Amino acid sequence: MGSSGVTNTKTSATYVKDGDFLRVEIVPGSHILKPGPGQHYFLYQPVSWRGWENHPFTLAGCGKIEASSQQGERSLFRDAVGQQKLTFFIRPFDGWTKRLRDQCLKSATGTITPHMFIEGPYGENASLSTYENVVFIVGGSGIAGALPYLQEYLRLKAENKTLTRDITVVWSARQAAMIQDIAANELKPMIGREDIRFHFHVTTKRGFRALKDKLRGGSDSEKEVKTSSSSSSEDEINIESGRPSIRHAILGTIQEVNNAGSAGGRIAIMTCGPGGMADEARAAVHAALKQGQRGVEYFEEAFGW
Fold this sequence. Notes:
305 residues, 8-stranded antiparallel beta sheet, globular, alpha/beta, Rossmann fold, 2 domains
């Protein structure tokens, strides 16, 4: 997919300290952008002593801005109701992303409105809506690779324009706070649905201990805790301690679908995470194919910033 050129934006950047990530929300100045799954964009910020800096980021979500019922919420976008808003999750490492985080930390609200330009989109939609079953294996900020597909699924499902009927999301992250924050925001419309199953994992003892300390409950021996992604008990989510068994998640789903025969349909496996995670997922799919399982396709989203 080709680029629509460099476009001015309205931008809001918030550092979620406990989750150690930046949520960057952008309203492009151009109305010709068509954001969607599988895309990445270059974000440009003019820096007086360094000229222009640009970095590629995976699109984590998109949708039209709705009028807020809360006074002052997203005040930057108050005059952009009805326009498309693009969301990006950024891990602050060195250089520009670290400076962006530091700017947020200096703000009393934790949010800043930097001057940015956007270029894109680049990338291709994997057309997952043509598969009856979809499994996402994602790590850390790699949830950005799955979110636009999940949003697309909700829209197409409401319009009865998708073959997909069952989705499994296996997401592991170092910080439970990252999972909680995104579950309470971007994932909120999907939590609790029977056709979308989430498996959340915190991969570090420190991250899981911080979650239990926050909830002030449970013994040290527990490997799973329940936490709410909002004020509603219906939005309760389970977060497990330790790395997920990617092989088990993939082969288990494939076996379950194949046991249903032709009624089970086809399966799409998509990964967006570190190299080791992608290698494990790829090996599991290869093992299934060697066992004679059919109707399985593997997709890999680029995992970067």
